[in-house]
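Support request, please re-run this one:
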Amino acid sequence: MKTLLALVLIALGVSPANAQTKPAALPDGVTAKEVKFFSEAVQCYAKIFTPKGFTADGKAPAIVLAPTPGETAASIGKYAAQMAGRGLVAMTIDYRGWGRSGGFLYLAEPLRWDDRLRFSQHTATVRIRRKRVIPDAQVQDIRNAISYLQGEPGVDRARIGVWGADVAGGHAMTVAAIDSRVKAVVAQAPIINGKDVPRKAAPPPAERQAEMVRLARHGQAPATPAAAVVMNSQEAKLALAEYHPFWFVDQIPQATAVLFVVAEKDLKVNNDANAVAAAKALKGPNGVTSIPGASHTMSAPAAFGAAVDAAAAWFQKHL
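Re-run finished. Output below.
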């Protein structure tokens, strides 16, 4: 419940990630470029870090780094830079509606259309929604980023990995379970909800049912910032309540290698109920690496360095 509340606060815009993040320092020989990819026709921002000696006619392994909800590509750029310093092409992304990516567009007025046409063009007033916490949409953004990365000259499309921390660690697991292009995963301090939730259909609690009814009957796109905050919060509660990445663990192919990097002194996540339990449920190569003395964010220099070393070594071995 505490995790859910924290994410709802993110949906409301109460997040330290809103502050400016300094560009990541680049190791010797590493270069970076900004690119745009499309996710469900929305233009999204990404940054690709390439290692020393990278050439467009080579075949380098590559990874997509996914930010936890509320953070952006800039927040995890330091991880990508260090991964590139170890020979990996690394791509950080902004989800739809976050950072420098486009938002979710909705019509602000009714339009007349003809269902016999597959396409028609109109001029209309639209409303753009941002800062939504919709896990399924973010998972799709990661998959579309993989597609972009596979088309990057010099990348070996058969050697693709995904990295994610916190809630994005659960995203990485979900992507690996439904997309066999992913050959290796690193989930850092992951939140993998669903271990103790029965895998069966269940009616929503009364409060959630009431919100579902309100959104279905009166859920037109918000017309004010205050209304957007309220709707984002309602949607986030519903989406997170039904997001159970642990349910997907046993669907991850045996050929996909998964590493969990956990913090020894994590006060936010129960490692036994998340990473350790997920590792036991996997069929393929896996491991759990605990970073001594580290807190959940692994922001201390020693913890950060150890986490990067573990992740890079895993990708180098399995990609």
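The helical segments are 2-11, 77-84, 135-150, 167-178, 206-218, 225-241, 272-281, 301-318. The mean pLDDT is 91.
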